[in-house]
Amino acid sequence: MRLILLGPPGAGKGTQAAFLTQHFGIPQISTGDMLRAAVKAGTPLGIEAKKVMDAGGLVSDEIIIGLVQDRLKQPDCAGGYLFDGFPRTIPQADALKSAGVKLDYVVEIEVPEEDIIERMSGRRVHQPSGRSYHVRFNPPKVAGHDDVTGEELIQRDDDREETVRHRLSVYREQTRPLVDYYSTWAQQNAAEAPKYRKISGVGAVDEIKSRLFEAVN
Ligand code: ADP
Ligand code: ADP
Ligand code: ADP
Description:
By secondary structure, the protein is an alpha/beta fold. It is 47% helix and 15% strand. It contains 9 helices and 7 strands. Strand 5 and strand 6 (131-134) form a beta hairpin. Helix 2 packs across helix 3 and helix 6 crosses helix 7. The protein is globular. The N and C termini lie close together (10 Å). Bound molecules: adenosine-5'-diphosphate (ADP) (3 copies). Residues 9-10, 14, 31-32, 35, 52-53, 56-59, 64, 85-86, 88, 92, 158, 167 line the site of one adenosine-5'-diphosphate.
């Protein structure tokens, strides 16, 4: 299985990615997680990316495409992969296409903007794994630190309301055009075009999970 999860920040891509990757035994390629790892490690790329991420902007296509190209060379990608938070711009999608990276599905998860602010403000993240929780909608089993390592859950620097609003406008302008990009490509019935599916991301985590499994069935 080779797929992209497309949708605004806070749509639940990371949450749902965990179910799909487990079921299909494929790696999750989250450019956001990769960048946060670089920030934590304090690499030059991380130091550069942190400024952009904290401001809610997009890291340059060149950097992102390089990261993904390297990641795809790893042996665990041979049997499939799930992209989460990538591609985010037309040039990133074009780079995938021209590199001949195969895709079976692009699944768009739709969530209205009103819900997103609420989701992001309650988001708490287990940093070592990248797993996210919500203080009300998807609480960790033990408040504050449920996860295998028992480490504290943190709030991301870029989940402040003001930054979230900016990230949403960046989504609308730079990422949303990918909806047209992939749905148009799918309609052309080209052999290499991934199937396009759109599901509602509103409802309980389990309901969305069922919709998602049905969409890629
Ligand atoms: P979310 O899960 O909330 O959508 P991500 O973890 O995917 O956020 O991304 C966090 C930040 O990392 C983004 O706001 C952006 O600054 C940067 N980033 C992640 N993926 C990309 C990408 N494909 N292109 C450019 N910037 C990216
Ligand atoms: P298991 O081996 O326990 O059946 P899988 O690895 O097959 O789990 O699947 C991973 C997760 O996805 C599990 O939580 C499973 O319940 C869920 N899942 C698998 N298929 C579907 C489906 N068709 N609809 C909803 N959830 C599913
Ligand atoms: P993304 O990766 O698309 O940015 P996340 O998976 O991190 O999104 O989810 C964003 C926030 O919303 C997290 O706090 C998560 O626990 C919560 N969340 C995920 N799915 C749902 C849902 N179906 N209903 C309510 N909140 C959700």
